[in-house]
Amino acid sequence: IDEAYFEFSQNTLAGKLHQHPNWIILRTFSKAFRLASMRVGYAIAHPSLTAALEKIRLPYNLPAFSQLAAEFALAQRQLLLAVIPETISERAKLIAALTQHQKLQVWPSAANFIYLRVKADDSLRDSSASRNLAEQEHKQIMEQLKAQGTLIRHTGGGLRITVGSPEENQRTVDRISGILT
């Protein structure tokens, strides 16, 4: 069970593990703990399952530097996790602001990013032409934002915007509004 964004969603199935001894919950240090390049994570599972996994684990499955980074992050977890409520609040504001644009379809999020798409043009009879037009608009939005100093990702047929500080988010909303009008 993927709980990579657990700190941002505040939802977990860990309390159900005793009922499901074959479940493994996977979490990462990549998101809330900001250790994406370290490739550090952990599993939560029934003790019999972790014992079986331990038997096949490689002896040096994680570089020492990554282990030290994870230990340091855990030691500083109160500081690192203190910003989560602000991120959650900013995510809600960002979604609310971008949902105001008629041209955008914004998905709910339980992560530290939001996902949106330019709505397809229903006036076009050919749905593939409509999707192609939307893809071109995604690329144009991304390029114009990049030219203005805002980096977002074009992925999965839409745009992925990481939730930033209040100032960064307002800048992003203002820039997207300027592009769409």
CA-atom Rg in angstroms: 20 Å
Class derived from helix and strand content? alpha+beta
Number of helices: 7
Assembly annotation: single chain
- Mean pLDDT, all residues: 92
Question: Which CATH-level-2 architecture of the largest domain?
Answer: Alpha-Beta Complex
Strand content: 5-15%
N- and C-termini, Cα separation: 42 Å
Structurally, the number of domains stands at 2
Q: What proportion of the residues is helical, as a percent range?
A: 40-55%
**Major β-sheet, in short?**
4 strands, antiparallel
N-to-C order of helices and strands: HEEHHHHEEHEEH
Quick one: CATH superfamily of the largest domain?
Aspartate Aminotransferase, domain 1
Number of distinct beta strands: 6
Sum up the overall morphology in one term: elongated
Give the neighbour order of strands across the main sheet.
Answer: 3-4-6-5
CATH class of the largest domain: Alpha Beta
CATH topology category name of the largest domain: Aspartate Aminotransferase, domain 1
Q: Which stretches are low in confidence, meaning pLDDT under 50 for 5 or more residues running?
A: none
